[in-house]
């Protein structure tokens, strides 16, 4: 989406105001919760080592509730991730076309900036929302894919499952949408389970899929050591030359588990471009092993 500079700067300032309003709303909601629930207030006071405030307020009466909250304010203010998910949910509720909905530019800006912020914090708070975002707004696939790929290792299996679920939906999606999501699975291939492989095989075998998506699916299958020689050969013969390096990469990933990969790579490396691809992947693999050993020594 192309936005004039002045309009962009205005939306940036407005989004910052929206975040501050959201932060204050979340803070006030938390204050209201503590005012209604004395047990929760007591828990917060203990958690923050401020039990004396509770004695002064609840028992001695020397301190008002407002004064207690003022002392606790730093502990009660929402963090950036809570604000970002609040702004994201609000934007989706006010999507273009709804009553009092946002403009397309403002909606795009709020959704994108929120997801980027959640990505930077590696926050899983929006995982339950990505399927809806992609179904309604497929043009957001790139930023959603970036968000999914940013998640920590302990969320990897859930993310892989979510991406497989999205790719399994029977709706039209462009090649670029599929490719972005496959790129996420490529990063999380170790977290995929066996029952999810048929989806990748289906994409790799589908003659109606683009060469790009089929090659991406084959690379993931290669990483998992489940690469079919005949499928690679078939795509090698029908895909444009520019996709050959992707197929070489797929065979390289599988070379430790599939015996046919070595002679295939030996032949493919007669092409200098493919040779460069293999050498690059070999160096990357060696560096990865070295980094893993270094982390082990430090641990």
Q: What would you note in describing this structure?
A:
With 299 residues, the chain is an all-alpha fold. Helices cover 72% and strands 0% of the residues. It has 16 helices and no strands. Residues 290-299 have low confidence and may be disordered.
Characterize this entry briefly.
This protein is 72% helix and 0% strand. With 299 residues, it is mostly helical.
Order of SSEs: HHHHHHHHHHHHHHHH
Taking the sheet with the most strands, its summary is:
none
β-strand percent reads under 5%
* Assembly state of the chains shown: single chain
Mean pLDDT: 90
Helical content, roughly? over 70%
What would the principal axes of the Cα set say about the shape? elongated
Give the class from helix and strand content and strand pairing. Answer: mainly alpha
Our measurement of the CA-to-CA distance between the termini, rounded to an integer number of angstroms, reads 46 Å
**Unreliable residue runs:** 290-299
Number of strands: 0
If you compute it from the alpha carbons, what radius of gyration comes out, rounded to the nearest whole angstrom?
26 Å
Number of alpha- plus pi-helical segments: 16
């Amino acid at each position: 989406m192309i936005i004039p500079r002045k309009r962009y700067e205005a939306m940036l300032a407005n989004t910052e105001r929206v975040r501050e309003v959201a932060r204050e709303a979340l803070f006030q909601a938390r204050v209201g919760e503590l005012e209604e629930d004395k047990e929760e207030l007591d828990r917060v006071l203990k958690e923050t080592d401020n039990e004396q405030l509770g004695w002064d307020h609840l028992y001695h009466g020397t301190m008002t509730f407002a004064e207690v909250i003022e002392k606790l304010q730093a502990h009660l203010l929402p963090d950036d991730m809570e604000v970002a998910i609040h702004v994201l949910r609000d934007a989706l509720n006010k999507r273009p076309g709804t009553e009092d909905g946002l403009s397309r530019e403002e909606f795009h800006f709020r959704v994108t900036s929120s997801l980027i912020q959640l990505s930077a914090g590696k926050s899983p708070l929006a995982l339950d929302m990505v399927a809806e975002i992609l179904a309604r707004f497929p043009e957001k696939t790139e930023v959603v894919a970036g968000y999914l790929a940013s998640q920590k290792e302990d969320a990897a299996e859930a993310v892989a499952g979510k991406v497989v679920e999205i790719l399994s939906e029977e709706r039209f999606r462009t090649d670029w949408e599929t490719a972005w999501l496959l790129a996420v699975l490529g990063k999380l291939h170790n977290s995929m389970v066996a029952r999810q492989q048929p989806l990748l095989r289906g994409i790799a075998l589908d003659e109606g899929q683009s060469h790009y998506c089929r090659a991406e699916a084959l690379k993931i299958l290669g990483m998992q050591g489940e690469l079919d020689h005949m499928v690679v050969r078939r795509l090698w013969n029908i895909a444009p030359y520019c996709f050959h390096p992707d197929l070489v990469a797929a065979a390289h990933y599988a070379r430790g588990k599939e015996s046919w990969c070595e002679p295939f790579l030996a032949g493919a490396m007669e092409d200098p471009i493919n040779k460069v691809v293999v050498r690059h992947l070999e160096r990357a693999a060696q560096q990865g092993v070295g980094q893993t050993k270094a982390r082990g020594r430090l641990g």
